[in-house]
Amino acid sequence: MAETFICKKDELQDGERKIVAVGEDEVGVFFHQGRYFAYSNICLHQGGPACEGLIIAKTQELLNEDRTSKGLSFSKDQTNFVCPWHGYEYDISTGECDSDRRLKLRSYQVVEKASDIYVVS
Ligand code: FES
Q: Does 53 contact ligand 1 (Cβ within 6 A)?
Protein backbone atom coordinates (compact mmCIF):
# COMPACT_ATOMS: atom_id res chain seq x y z
CA MET A 1 0.00 0.00 0.00
CA ALA A 2 1.32 3.41 -0.98
CA GLU A 3 0.27 6.71 0.53
CA THR A 4 0.22 9.77 -1.69
CA PHE A 5 0.34 13.16 -0.02
CA ILE A 6 -2.63 15.30 -1.09
CA CYS A 7 -2.33 18.51 0.86
CA LYS A 8 -2.40 20.09 4.28
CA LYS A 9 -5.84 19.81 5.93
CA ASP A 10 -6.31 23.57 5.93
CA GLU A 11 -5.79 23.66 2.15
CA LEU A 12 -9.06 21.77 1.50
CA GLN A 13 -12.15 23.47 2.90
CA ASP A 14 -15.51 21.78 3.33
CA GLY A 15 -17.22 21.66 -0.07
CA GLU A 16 -13.96 21.74 -2.02
CA ARG A 17 -12.04 19.09 -3.96
CA LYS A 18 -8.60 18.49 -5.33
CA ILE A 19 -7.64 16.45 -8.38
CA VAL A 20 -4.34 14.65 -7.88
CA ALA A 21 -2.22 11.98 -9.53
CA VAL A 22 -2.12 8.74 -7.53
CA GLY A 23 0.10 6.19 -9.23
CA GLU A 24 -1.29 5.65 -12.73
CA ASP A 25 -4.70 7.05 -11.82
CA GLU A 26 -6.07 10.56 -11.42
CA VAL A 27 -8.14 10.92 -8.28
CA GLY A 28 -10.68 13.44 -7.06
CA VAL A 29 -10.44 14.05 -3.31
CA PHE A 30 -13.53 15.68 -1.80
CA PHE A 31 -14.00 17.20 1.64
CA HIS A 32 -17.73 17.03 2.25
CA GLN A 33 -19.54 17.65 5.53
CA GLY A 34 -16.41 16.97 7.55
CA ARG A 35 -15.46 13.74 5.79
CA TYR A 36 -13.00 12.94 3.02
CA PHE A 37 -13.91 10.88 -0.07
CA ALA A 38 -11.67 9.94 -2.99
CA TYR A 39 -12.65 8.50 -6.38
CA SER A 40 -11.09 7.76 -9.72
CA ASN A 41 -11.45 10.75 -12.02
CA ILE A 42 -12.35 8.49 -14.96
CA CYS A 43 -16.07 8.57 -15.72
CA LEU A 44 -17.75 5.21 -16.23
CA HIS A 45 -19.64 6.55 -19.24
CA GLN A 46 -16.95 7.57 -21.72
CA GLY A 47 -13.89 8.31 -19.61
CA GLY A 48 -14.47 12.01 -18.95
CA PRO A 49 -13.13 13.80 -15.87
CA ALA A 50 -15.89 12.55 -13.56
CA CYS A 51 -14.78 14.46 -10.46
CA GLU A 52 -14.27 17.88 -12.05
CA GLY A 53 -17.81 19.13 -12.61
CA LEU A 54 -20.46 20.72 -10.44
CA ILE A 55 -20.95 19.65 -6.85
CA ILE A 56 -24.67 19.95 -6.29
CA ALA A 57 -27.52 18.61 -4.18
CA LYS A 58 -29.32 15.70 -5.85
CA THR A 59 -32.33 16.89 -7.80
CA GLN A 60 -35.43 14.88 -6.99
CA GLU A 61 -38.99 14.92 -8.21
CA LEU A 62 -41.70 15.09 -5.58
CA LEU A 63 -44.89 13.15 -6.36
CA ASN A 64 -48.50 13.51 -5.33
CA GLU A 65 -50.42 10.42 -4.13
CA ASP A 66 -51.67 9.86 -7.68
CA ARG A 67 -48.03 9.90 -8.86
CA THR A 68 -48.34 13.20 -10.70
CA SER A 69 -45.47 15.58 -10.24
CA LYS A 70 -45.33 18.24 -7.53
CA GLY A 71 -42.17 19.56 -9.13
CA LEU A 72 -38.48 19.30 -8.49
CA SER A 73 -36.53 19.98 -5.34
CA PHE A 74 -33.01 19.63 -4.02
CA SER A 75 -32.26 16.78 -1.63
CA LYS A 76 -31.13 17.70 1.86
CA ASP A 77 -29.53 14.27 2.26
CA GLN A 78 -27.53 13.62 -0.88
CA THR A 79 -24.89 15.60 -2.74
CA ASN A 80 -23.66 14.62 -6.18
CA PHE A 81 -20.76 15.60 -8.37
CA VAL A 82 -21.47 15.80 -12.07
CA CYS A 83 -19.20 14.66 -14.88
CA PRO A 84 -18.79 17.74 -17.10
CA TRP A 85 -18.86 15.82 -20.37
CA HIS A 86 -22.41 14.42 -20.44
CA GLY A 87 -23.79 14.87 -16.94
CA TYR A 88 -23.48 11.50 -15.21
CA GLU A 89 -24.04 12.24 -11.55
CA TYR A 90 -22.18 10.42 -8.78
CA ASP A 91 -23.13 10.30 -5.10
CA ILE A 92 -20.32 12.06 -3.28
CA SER A 93 -20.59 9.74 -0.27
CA THR A 94 -20.41 6.45 -2.22
CA GLY A 95 -19.09 7.11 -5.75
CA GLU A 96 -22.17 5.38 -7.17
CA CYS A 97 -23.81 6.69 -10.31
CA ASP A 98 -27.08 8.23 -9.19
CA SER A 99 -29.09 6.90 -12.14
CA ASP A 100 -27.64 3.37 -12.01
CA ARG A 101 -26.25 2.29 -8.62
CA ARG A 102 -24.57 -0.72 -10.22
CA LEU A 103 -22.02 1.71 -11.65
CA LYS A 104 -19.52 2.82 -9.04
CA LEU A 105 -16.28 4.74 -9.39
CA ARG A 106 -13.16 3.16 -7.95
CA SER A 107 -12.78 4.57 -4.44
CA TYR A 108 -9.67 5.22 -2.41
CA GLN A 109 -9.11 5.41 1.33
CA VAL A 110 -8.16 8.82 2.66
CA VAL A 111 -6.08 9.04 5.83
CA GLU A 112 -5.20 11.99 8.00
CA LYS A 113 -1.82 12.22 9.66
CA ALA A 114 -1.22 15.21 11.88
CA SER A 115 -2.07 18.15 9.60
CA ASP A 116 -1.69 16.22 6.32
CA ILE A 117 -4.08 14.26 4.07
CA TYR A 118 -3.03 11.18 2.10
CA VAL A 119 -4.72 8.84 -0.37
CA VAL A 120 -3.96 5.14 0.01
CA SER A 121 -3.54 3.10 -3.16
S1 FES B 1 -17.93 10.80 -19.97
FE2 FES B 1 -18.81 11.36 -18.08
S3 FES B 1 -20.88 11.60 -18.51
FE4 FES B 1 -20.05 10.97 -20.40
A: no
